[in-house]
Amino acid sequence: MQTGSHDISGLSHKPSLPLGSLLFRRLDGLLIVGELVCGALVWFLEAGTNLPIATYQGWVMFVAVTFFILTFIQFVIYLSHVPERNIDAWKMADILYNSVAFGMYLSASVLLANLLATYSLSGNSFYGLNVAAVIFAFLTTLFYGMSVVFGIRRGKFE
User: Fold this and answer.
1) Contact (CB, 8 A) for 68 and 33
2) What are phi and psi of 133, to 5 degrees?
3) Ranges for the MARVEL domain (predicted)?
4) How far apart are CA 148 and CA 93, in angstroms?
């Protein structure tokens, strides 16, 4: 058995963030890509509809646009290997960011689903777009929740 950084027992291994090309080769990296794709779909689908309560649509749009932009910034930062300089702080920031995103997306998803169920929007020409937005909002929420779990698992190895 070797000692040092190449310890074959795996005890010295610390799972890291999906940096660089790992964004496309690891599940936790693909979750970020999924958050971007599904978040953009929520944004575009909601932008193309008209809900009876404008403040609800405003909240959903705020959450979708804000977290699309922030996740895109996160994606670029991870792609450029910036977190290598202080990996432990970035791991904690990743957990906090994804936790906030999960909570806010969950609130927007439930709000949108409740609005769709409460108001008889089935006669509305935008009904299909709203249903698709609800589905993608919950899918995005799931992706952020899974990112939180991966982040916590990374932190347990310290």
Assistant:
1) no
2) -65, -40
3) 23-156
4) 11
pLDDT digits (tens, 9 = 90+) for 21-52: 888 888 889 999 999 999 999 999 998 887 77
Residue located via tokens 């950084």: 5
Give the pTM: 0.85
Place of tokens 């709203």: 130
Question: How far is 111 from 76, CA to CA, in rounded Å?
Answer: 30
Amino acid at 79: L
Give 100: exposed, middle or buried? Use CB within 10 Å, 0-12, 13-18, 19+.
middle
Which distant-in-sequence residues (6+ apart) come within 8 Å of 141 by Cβ? 102, 105, 106, 109
CB 108 within 8 A of CB 137: yes
